[in-house]
Amino acid sequence: QVQLVESGGGLVQPGGSLNLSCAASGIAIRINTMAWYRQAPGKERELVATIGISGSTKYADSMKERFTISRHIVKNTVYLQMNSLKPEDTAVYYCYTRSVWGQGTQVTVSS
Questions:
Q1: Most CB atoms closer than 10 Å: which of 1, 53, 92, 111?
Q2: DSSP per-residue string spanning 66-97
């Protein structure tokens, strides 16, 4: 049974940073493409970033300069480092792989 557990969300001021974690169990992240999505209130869920089996990364255009996806193979954990956060980054952030979603972690950017 695949489980994804996100953590690291919270309230941060504009311009601040957060580092989200996604701990995976029942699946080896080194042989699966992992993704971060987000969903803001009243909006559709959107792709934030992916990290492939080779470690290659892709980002949504609006986030590629500020967000970094990475992984720790031994810890079986995927991360999303978010810098220069803006109020429009406020959303629930979800980890995803192989049709499985985590429960999400809330990120709120506000002064």
A1: 92
A2: TEEEEEETTTTEEEEEE-S--GGG-EEEEEEE
What gap in Å lies between CA 109 and CA 53, rounded to an integer? 31
Are the beta carbons of 103 and 14 closer than 8 angstroms? no
User: Token pair of 65, please?
Assistant: 């300069």
Residue 107 CA to residue 93 CA, distance in Å, equals: 7
Decide: helix, strand or coil at residue 109: strand
| pLDDT digit string, tens, across residues 19-69 | 999 999 999 999 999 999 999 999 999 999 999 999 999 999 989 899 999
The predicted pLDDT at position 109 comes to 98
Cα 80 off chain centre by: 5
Mean pLDDT of the chain: 97
